[in-house]
Amino acid sequence: MAKHKDLPDPVVDLRWMSRALAPVGMWGPSGGSRLYDAYSIWTIVQLVLTAAGQMAGLQGHWDDLTTVFTSLCFDLTVTCTIIKGTIFVLQRESLDALSRHIERNAVEFCSHLPEERRALLVRARNLSRLIVCSFQSVGGVTLVSFITGPIVQNGRDRELLASGLSNVTVDRQLGHNYPMLMWWFGGLPVSSPGYEAAYLLMCYWLVLMYICTNVPDAYYVGLLNYISAQLRLLHIALRSIAHPEPGDLLTEKLSHTYGLTLKGDVPAKGGAQESSRDGVFARLLECIRFHQEIIKCVDEMESLLSLTVLIQFFTSTLVICLTAITVINTEAAYLPTYAAYLATMFYQLFIYCWYGGEVYLESERLQFSAYSCNWPDTDARFRKTLRICMARMQRPLNLTAYKFYKLSRETFLLLLNGSYSYFTLLLQMNQKND
Asked: Taking the model in full, what pTM does it have?
């Protein structure tokens, strides 16, 4: 609940993500529940069985490069989802604590800037909703492509069979395609109702994988978005520290805070100037405390996000490479599906690098905002404290992938370059074998 009328309710709004994760066992009820914990474990077990079924299903298909690469992409994605999902489930309480920490910062600091604070929080909330919608949309296109692709291919196969142009020995899978390659006891069924039941089960696994890999990413990025919003609010607070306020407002504050007896705009006592300086210095101390709390939030975010991002970077780099090889060798009918899958991998890399880079860039510019606070009109105490503050702000806040990569736009280009290098290497090896 919001503690001030000028704040949106809730202050940190990540409900869309938690509601999407709850049905698949990734976001439990507050206070914990053993039954829900068992359901969470069952979700992870299903993903493990999906990965194992993918690898086992490759038996007898190792000579088909497109099938092998497609299965490897699926298996890498499922394995990444298993690790990320397990980490996310174990971090549920810590993520909730970080969300409350960000909310406390929003309530406690910069109450003298109500309009700016509310505008930034509303913008962060809308942007978080846009993030989850974009994640769901990009991933949803891929999901729909994989689910409906075999149905379209089944229609073409039936036309081929009806034309009588096929060989006498007909592939038993012709007209009975599946969304993914999977091991099945006794072989994948091709007759009703076994075929339909197996198809629906694979669609369920795809939806499960889709939710468990996309929505946690949206949750992490949503938290990054709120941290960036607080850094923007700190920019505004720093710039306005020592700038003069309207005389009537300043007079009212001096009267209320320091108990001065005022006559018009001139205090009866000679402490008005000192009181004003004390107020300006108090604002500086508030900004310093706000900055310290943001640093703590970034450190918490780093500890929660670091391993997940490293795994995502490694997986996406390989999957982009393998999918690109598959696109070159696949039939034209499957190109939209693989293109959508490739776009999803690109987006998962980009979104982390972009919003991680936002935190870095906003923190990097803090020292310039502090320098713009009209410090020449302040006293020696203020200027000395400001120098110490600016010395700390010279070190931008970094989020990393387990210290291997910094989350930034440059890292995104570096990872794409790595994928392209692996792609050219595999392409050359494939051409030599041909």
From this structure: 0.87
